[in-house]
Amino acid sequence: MLWKKAWRWWIVVLSAIFLCACSIDSHLYLQEAAVKIEDPFETETEQEFSGLIITYLALPKGESTLLRMPGGKTMLIDTGTAEDWPVLSARLAELKITRLDYVVLTNDQPEHMGGYASLSQQVLVDAVILPKLIAPSIRHVVLLRSNQKQMEVEQGQVLTLDQEISMEVLLPDEPLFLSPQNNSLVFRLTHGQLRFLFMSA
Asked: Is 193 found in the same domain as 160?
């Protein structure tokens, strides 16, 4: 009779040890999953990557590019046309973007800033970056809110956007009235040893 009681106690003890081991393993797994990694080839999801992520958003008529910086800041370069907004909105929702630290409007042409009005109603925008040379013509078409920080940039200016991320303005340097597209903002983005050239096309 005593051996039956002993077996019962052993079963209870072993079960308790097994359950504790499982909970510790699952706890460690959850902690591991939350850690961001630096190598983009070690993960299949953007959320786990801690470096700079550049996403080129394919729009039917215009163009737009999203940057996620290592420090967590986000920047959207151009907003496409007004007709592109449903596609851009769906892509931003898919990427879980509800707030942008910067929106860069590179030109006053519709394919670059036509979707801004809809964007500003759906997404919180902290700062808008404009090329100083054509900023008045952009403001003439786009209504910028008074609570948004507006930054006019010019050739040679360097902005620090986030940790180890800077933006150097290369163009425009003079107004070209016969070719408005050539008044677009051209800039170099530097992240550590990496450099990216953004040319409004």
From this structure: yes
User: What residue ranges of the chain have pLDDT lower than 50?
Assistant: 2-3, 23-35, 37, 41
Q: Do 4 and 50 belong to one domain?
A: no
User: What CA–CA distance (Å, rounded) separates 76 from 67?
Assistant: 6
Q: Could you tell me the pTM of the whole model?
A: 0.76
Query: What's the CA angle centered on 173, arms 150 and 131, to 5 degrees?
Result: 15
> What per-residue confidence (pLDDT) applies to 141?
87
Q: Give dist(CA 182, CA 102) in Å, integer.
A: 23
Question: Do 67 and 157 belong to one domain?
Answer: yes
Between β-strands 63-68 and 165-171, what pairing exists: parallel, antiparallel or unpaired?
unpaired
Q: Edge-to-edge strand order for the sheet containing 74-77?
A: 53-58, 63-68, 74-77, 99-104, 124-131, 149-153
Say what the pLDDT of residue 152 is. 96
Domain range spanning residue 116? 40-199
Q: 9 Cβ partners below 8 Å, 6+ apart?
A: none
